[in-house]
Amino acid sequence: MRLWRFFIVFVFGSVVLFSGCAESSNKRVIKLAHGLDVSHPVHKAMVFMGERLVEKSGGKMSLDIYPSQQLGSERECLELLQIGSLGMTKVSTGVLENFAPQLKVFGLPFLFRDAAHRFEVLEGPIGEELLNASIPQRLKGLAFYDAGSRSFYTKEPIEGPQDLQGLKLRVMESQTAINMVKYLGGSPTPISWGELYTALQQGVVDGAENNLPSFYLSHHYEVCKYFLVDEHTALPDELLISTVLWNDLSPEEQKWVKEAAMESAEFEKKIWHEAEMEALTEIQKAGVKVTYPDKEPFRELVKPMYEEFKQNPEMKRLIEEIQNVTTD
Asked: Is 113 helix (H, G, I), strand (E, B) or coil?
């Protein structure tokens, strides 16, 4: 009798265990990879998204996040999304313009009047249109993350565009960014973000351009002691999902993912400003000279970019629509 009772308990235990595994296997775990450090506001926003996704789905969905280029560079992650080997990623719209030409508009220097104008565009109909621009490439945009404004930083003193003449400056794999640096007199050099610290140390490049938190969290301030706050571009980051995965989700699952993404973008916007202030304080403590130049000479040098863009009717429309967006 005892043996029989043991057998029933053993079998029952096995059935329960199997059921637990089945529930686990039915749970959808989305792999999300990106190139940023875990202390970056965007990574924190992704963690927040994962928490919201678990809550919204009642534990049926979650995120598995791989930061710091663990699964490859931004471009490599995009290619993994296209074949469905990776579920989600975050990339700069500067890199994404190679997959969706409409996003080149974000690379135009001094496109936005201020932060309020930028958010009005990104969170409105134009933003939604641009989030969907990469769908033909099997990349669906879910939300834009604030990435502030980008400025130049170098190993040698800089105070204006005249000091950029001939400098080798790291840029993203973005033709728009390459052209911008050329117009400003620099020598653009595309380098992966993960390789940039070493490239700066070894003199492969003389400087780069990015936002304050990225400059600080990457420790580039250890090599580059001059930061020129020209705020030439305000390229948002974009959170993307593979359409291979998206089309496999039920309408309810799609709703959970989209809502969690949008809520994480709101969360990220709130902590971004704090990260900028912290970065500014810390780099100055580390001996970085921060300069605020007159932006007009920069604007004058890049004006031809607008004329080139407007030769394309689609880009002309986008530029004019963005410039016509008003803020309260």
From this structure: coil
Q: Report pLDDT digits (tens) over 242-267.
A: 999 999 999 999 999 999 999 999 99
* Residue 261, token pair as written in the block: 């993404």
Q: Smallest Cα–Cα separation from 179: which of 210, 9, 169? A: 169
> 200: how many CB neighbours lie within 10 A of its CB?
23
d(CA 233, CA 209): 10
pLDDT of residue 37: 87
Amino acid, single-letter form, for residue 274: E
Q: What are the tens digits of pLDDT across the range 210-219? A: 999 999 999 9
Looking from the CA of 323 toward its CB, the CA atoms found within 13 Å total: 12
**154-166 burial string, b = 16+ CB within 10 Å, else e?**
bbeebeebebbee
Task: Convert the pLDDT of each residue in 107-155 to its tens digit.
Answer: 999 999 999 999 999 999 999 999 999 999 999 999 999 999 999 999 9
Q: Which uninterrupted H or E stretch holds 169?
A: strand 168-171
pTM of the model: 0.84
Where would I find the H helices in the chain?
A: 2-26, 41-57, 74-82, 93-96, 115-122, 125-131, 175-183, 196-201, 212-217, 243-246, 251-285, 296-309, 313-324
Q: CA 275, CA 262: separation in Å to the nearest integer?
A: 20
Using CA atoms, how far apart are residues 158 and 293, in angstroms rounded to an integer?
10
